[in-house]
Amino acid sequence: MDRIRIVGGRPLVGRIPISGAKNAALPLMIASLLTDRKLTLENLPRLADVGALTRILGNHGVDYSIDGKRKGEGEIAGQTVHLEARAIVDTTAPYELVSRMRASFWVIAPLIARMGEARVSLPGGCAIGTRPVDLLLMALERLGAQIDIEAGYVVARAPRGLKGAEIDFPKVTVGGTHVALMAATLAQGTTVIHNAAREPEVGDLAACLTKMGARISGAGTATIEVEGVARLGGASHAVLPDRIETGTYAMAVAMTGGDVLLEGARADLLQAALDAVSAAGATVVSEAGGVRVTRNGGPIRPVDVTTEPFPGFPTDLQAQFMALMTRAAGVSRIRETIFENRFMHVQELARLGAHIRLDGDTALVEGVPVLKGAPVMATDLRASVSLVIAALAAEGETIVNRVYHLDRGFEHLEKKLGACNADVERLSNPG
Ligand code: UD1
């Protein structure tokens, strides 16, 4: 299993190209199941989760091809892929494939919408609290699907097709909104999704579905209306930049000091997080080529944040911001309202010398002047990158174990940081 070795203490200086968003890429790839025509996705990140989803889609009958490298393209440039589901050959998504990544459960929506049946294993993914699928299934039931749970599988049936309906989510769910949106595109009649997630990735999916011929209005607001169509066609769509990767590197620069241009980043996708980074003492400026983050001298200031659905502070940046706050000149409060049990990084940060006390859904972080390198363990995707941020500012050497979590969501992390003066290397361990 690979590990990452970091020797902390160097400011980050340079440019970091921001990849296509993992959380947009996954639903966009899944949307290819809705049509027998070719869906071309540009700027797709090279990530373990993208590879895993490719295998799942292949099992349903999706042909997949990747364009070769183009002249002048660096190794970090996003890929262009073509997905074509001429025929769905299998409506079952098996446990062996789905259990490793929660988002793969979302294939249930296009499968039932196009084929009238789907059999999908209950999901796995990051172990952050209980992450049920009741709201996703409620949405499909509202659209007329019959849902049964059989031996760990969700079996959805709608032999005469889905029917447009009112779907009212009692709580904001990104996955629920993706599922409702995809299923409604091929339902008969009009669907209205109330309390829809407003995350930019929902807007990106809606934009792509619209190019494919779907009739959607209101994506990006809390009420989305979908008028079903009989079939969808092909399209070409570029994945939007990853706001979580953007925020992660912005927090890393705020942590180490320095000056980095986050190339291709869009501040409007994560304003709440960038406001918190600014409040902590960094300067954040939008430029033509992206977002520039600098911090030269001056202390890291304590800032309280509460995670919320978009446009609030994202839960996927909570661990990274906590890492930054471990070095703040004072006490900060970080409240997690989206997921239970999303504080697994706390005990690992403590191994580096952080002072953090948990009180229910809130972490009280008392900044310390120095962190010290140590061996630590990556526990989930976002938690592991928070350890990288802490290690970049810690004295001495940190070894981050179990970095396969990082590979699920961060493309070329060590190369991107290494190109900005960080002392970081991947140690490959056979077996
Ligand atoms: C997506 C993101 C994930 C992010 C999360 C919240 C992807 C691939 N993943 O996950 O990175 O952290 O949004 O921004 O895009 N819930 C239920 N019942 C359900 C579904 C969800 O109770 O049927 C709850 C969850 O337990 C959680 C909350 O709703 O407390 C939000 O979850 P949701 O927005 O659905 O997260 P995901 O779509 O799984």
What does this structure look like?
This protein is an alpha/beta fold. 30% of the residues lie in helices and 26% in strands. It has 14 helices and 24 strands. Helix 6 (174-185) runs parallel beside helix 7 (200-211) and helix 8 packs parallel to helix 10. It is globular.
Layout: helices, strands, pairs:
Elements: E1 3-7, E2 12-17, H1 22-31, E3 38-44, H2 48-60, E4 63-66, E5 79-84, E6 92-93, H3 95-98, H4 108-115, E7 117-121, H5 134-142, E8 146-150, E9 153-157, E10 166-168, H6 174-185, E11 190-194, H7 200-211, E12 215-217, E13 224-227, E14 235-238, H8 243-256, E15 258-263, H9 271-279, E16 283-287, E17 290-295, E18 305-306, H10 318-325, E19 331-335, H11 345-351, E20 355-359, E21 362-366, E22 375-377, H12 381-393, E23 397-401, H13 404-409, H14 413-418, E24 423-427
Parallel strand pairs: 2-15, 3-14, 6-7, 10-11, 18-19, 22-23
Antiparallel strand pairs: 1-23, 1-24, 3-5, 4-5, 7-9, 8-9, 11-13, 12-13, 15-17, 16-17, 19-21, 20-21
The structure holds uridine-diphosphate-N-acetylglucosamine.
Quick rundown:
This protein is 30% helix and 26% strand. It has 431 residues and is an alpha/beta fold. It is globular, with a radius of gyration of 21 Å.
Task: Based on the model shown, name its key terms.
431 residues, alpha/beta, four-stranded mixed β-sheet, binds uridine-diphosphate-N-acetylglucosamine
